[in-house]
Amino acid sequence: MQTHVLGFPRMGASRELKFALERHWRGELSAQGLVDIGRELTVRHWEIQREAGLSLVAVGDFSFYDHVLDTAAMLGLLPGRFADEPRPLFPETYFAMARGDAEKNLPPLDMTKWFDTNYHYLAPEITPGMTPRLARQAVIEDARLAVSLGHRPKAVLLGPLTFLSLCRAEDGADRFELLPGIMAVYREILQQLAPLCPVIQIDEPILCTEMATAAKAYFKPASVMLRAAAEGAKLLLATYFGGLGENLDLALESGFDILHLDATRAGHELSGVADRLLGDMSLSLGLVSGRNIWKTDLARAVATARDMARKLGEDRLLIGTGCSLLHCPVDLERERALAPDVRRTMSFAVQKCREVAVIAEAAEGWDHAETLAKNAADLAAGRDNPLACDPAVRRRLEGVTPAMLSRQSPFAERKKAQQARLNLPLLPTTTIGSFPQTAAIRAARLALRRGEMDQAGYRAAMQEAIADAVARQEALSLDVLVHGEPERNDMVEYFGQMLGGFCFTENGWVQSYGSRCVKPPVIFGDVSRPAPMTVDWIGHAQSLTQKPVKGMLTGPVTILNWSFVREDIPRAEVCRQIALAVRDEVADLERAGTPIIQIDEAAFREGLPLGRADQEAYLTWAVECFRLTASGVSDATQIHTHMCYSEFGTIIRWIAAMDADVISIECSRSKMELLSAFGEFEYPNDIGPGIYDIHSPRVPGVEEMAGLLRKAMAVIPAERLWVNPDCGLKTRDWPETMASLANVVAAAKMLRAEIEAEK
């Protein structure tokens, strides 16, 4: 049996790529220096895979920012505003597409979530007249290097149908008209890769979704062309994040040599797929999860592999990860502070590579009895951990009633009570919550962690940062203020540190987008809230101003989806536990006089299963968990929520069912495209569509922001619109933040004047 992973984390065990990228963007590291660091990481990751015993190493999975952007660059599909610039494709144009160009006022590509993960991809733009060409050959160069170093490389390419399905079609373009030109480029690439790579992996996760009719129609002809171009190598069709469902026939009839099935998400399809494999098509079994940090049940995985080997023969079976390990931390060996009973149940990317090899070896008859016995004991220890079960939490969950899931009055009545309390102007201005994490804030946090500053000193430093944020907002004349969240390193980790049932890694970093990494908390036990978490910070901010200050919380669905979650009880049950804990915080904030409470559900859409049959169950309990968190307050307390880059069209009625008084969403990169769903559905409550892209260093002008507001007013009445940035401002610097927010306020005032003039 051959063994492989679908991809490996890019950032490095010490986030070497993150720091190199940021040095390059600051002008402190040359382009060649950046390339050298990328090459060093790539070679190191190949060695990890080979040393783990894998027979193939993945090449082409490394990226300096995003693999979808890489594919657009490879195909030479650059939007006109970038294609017209006389500068090299990499790195100048590449990073301009990713981050925008502040100097030349060029906005970046739109960004959204990669299927149901917390990874963000950049959505390429397709416009009429584009002509694909082979513009960047990084995957070919990497394959040659891997061969020169003695590896058996497996090239990884994003499939053409998934790529086109994820693109944004602009100015009336038909994305699939580009397919013949794209296939010509893929043919050229495959012809060069085939002599170097015994296997070439084509990622088509779009097959695990309800595909567009055009994508289905073009899939088989495109697959036949790919197969013909890869003469001499085997083509592996990689699907992941779900089952194939109604697209199983498409996959089986594709003509690919190998079909990869994510058995960690679609194990129920294994037997049927094995029975229906056509001709001599092989099966790649994704038996090791690329989405969690828990050890694989090796005995179960070996049994599955042996069963499939009996049906197909060992020579027609590959063992791998369910999906790329991009979504995992790198190396568990770097974690020394975890409780031993929890640590022994974990496996990061390095360890998962070895799990893949062990499963294949044991299935072939190698003696791994000791390894399997230790694995079983480790998993049993996790299940039997006495800290994992809290009877009080479970009793409280049993006592939840339907009345706890609803506000006292309908939105229209609540809005009157809230306006009487808040007295806000038309098009009220606010921010999403976080402000720049300055060097002083980071230094104070580090000093506290190292024991160089006591709690009193840290508290004073944070209060000073809060006072500065409040003063800046008052100077800008924002209508609703925030405390700026200086005390929070991460919007999920901060809360997890004060909730029972969580533990934390020291180096468990996972890429979110570009150089941005997150360190997801680990939920290993029942969740509870021992004490208030935010009340003092919000109260301090409110004491400094007469304007309303929002309390800022992270919602239960986002805490769940942005954590590594225990697998011994259903995710819905874990989410309800979190909801009750955050509900207590909401109640305490209200008792303290906080007039507005924002419960961020940035990851609400993210957890949606790809298979339509599984979606309603998820949405039902996700909405219930939000309402359980938010519904215990009076009519006069205004509940906000915020959602990050998401496609809302198919779930808009569920978002409405959350019944938040105000929802803010990211709209500026899509030029208000995302807002169309809220108009078509006649979304009933208030909404704040973002008019300022915080992921780019550029400062949008007042007229640009006003233009976006006018687009929003064509969909949502001005009486129900709020004015705000796309997201939190934690990653920005103060000068650009102040300049951009000044323009936000000016744009709101401009529109108020226009509305008044029309009366």
UniProtKB/TrEMBL annotation:
Its EC number is 2.1.1.14. Residues 3-310 form the Cobalamin-independent methionine synthase MetE N-terminal domain. L-homocysteine binds at I432, G433, S434, E485, D600. Pfam families: Meth_synt_1, Meth_synt_2. Residues 427-749 form the Cobalamin-independent methionine synthase MetE C-terminal/archaeal domain. L-methionine binds at I432, G433, S434, E485, D600. The keyword Nucleus does not apply. Zn(2+) 1 binds at H642, C644, E666, C727. Binds 2 Zn(2+) ions per subunit. Binds 1 zinc ion per subunit. One of its GO terms (molecular function) is zinc ion binding. Zn(2+) binds at H642, C644, E666, C727. InterPro entries: Cbl-indep_Met_Synth_N, Cobalamin-indep_Met_synthase, Met_Synth_C/arc, UROD/MetE-like_sf. Keywords: Amino-acid biosynthesis, Metal-binding, Methionine biosynthesis, Methyltransferase, Repeat, Transferase, Zinc. One of its GO terms (biological process) is methylation. It comes from the Bacteria. The keyword Lipid metabolism does not apply. 5-methyltetrahydropteroyltri-L-glutamate binds at R15, E16, L17, K18, K113, N118, R516, C517, W562, E606. Its cofactor is Zn(2+). The active site is at H695 (proton donor). It is an enzyme of class 2 (transferase). It catalyses: 5-methyltetrahydropteroyltri-L-glutamate + L-homocysteine = tetrahydropteroyltri-L-glutamate + L-methionine. Belongs to the vitamin-B12 independent methionine synthase family. Catalyzes the transfer of a methyl group from 5-methyltetrahydrofolate to homocysteine resulting in methionine formation. This is 5-methyltetrahydropteroyltriglutamate--homocysteine methyltransferase.
